[in-house]
Amino acid sequence: MTQQIINTWDQCTAAGGDCVAIYYHPYNARACSPAKWSVSRFKDGKELVTDKEAAWYDYKRKTFSIGHPIREHKQAALAEAINWVCKTYGPRTFVRNRMGDYVEQDVNERFPIPRREP
Questions:
Q1: pLDDT digits (tens, 9 = 90+) for 12-59
Q2: What distance in Å separates the CA atoms of residue 99 and residue 84, rounded to the nearest whole number?
């Protein structure tokens, strides 16, 4: 049985090996959480800690907060996240997947998220 790829998590766990994904989280007023990018690292299908010091609500993931106005700062925070990943885990090429997250190019090519039929 083959794994059905429907989201970023599925892409990264199906890829196996060592891969990184960068997720966007919008501002959440109820949780008092700012808009941010978070870095998840997967090794052999399991998620690893990327920041031991992260707040509990960031699930041990390295985060990069986006300043206001979001439209002006979103790309800069993404660039900061990508630079951190490359310095920490080695050079990688990221592309935007169908979910709007950023995954490594080879992962997106080998395990694309299919277009959903209405």
A1: 999 989 999 999 999 887 777 889 999 999 999 899 999 999 988 899
A2: 22
Instruction: Classify residue 39 by burial, with Cβ atoms within 10 Å: 0-12, 13-18, 19+.
Output: buried
**Burial classification of residue 26, based on how many CB atoms lie within 10 Å of its CB (0-12 exposed, 13-18 middle, 19 or more buried):** exposed
Which residue ranges make up each domain of the chain?
8-110
In this structure, what token pair is assigned to residue 85?
A: 């990943």
In 3-state terms, the chain is what percent helix, strand and coil (to 5)?
Answer: 30, 25, 40
The Cα–Cα gap between 112 and 98 comes to 8
The 10 Å Cβ neighbour count of residue 34 is: 15
For β-strands 94-96 and 18-25, DSSP reports them as unpaired
Model confidence, pTM: 0.91
Distance from C-alpha of 45 to C-alpha of 10, rounded to nearest angstrom: 9
What is the distance, to the nearest Å, from the Cα of residue 109 to the centroid of all Cα atoms in its chain?
16
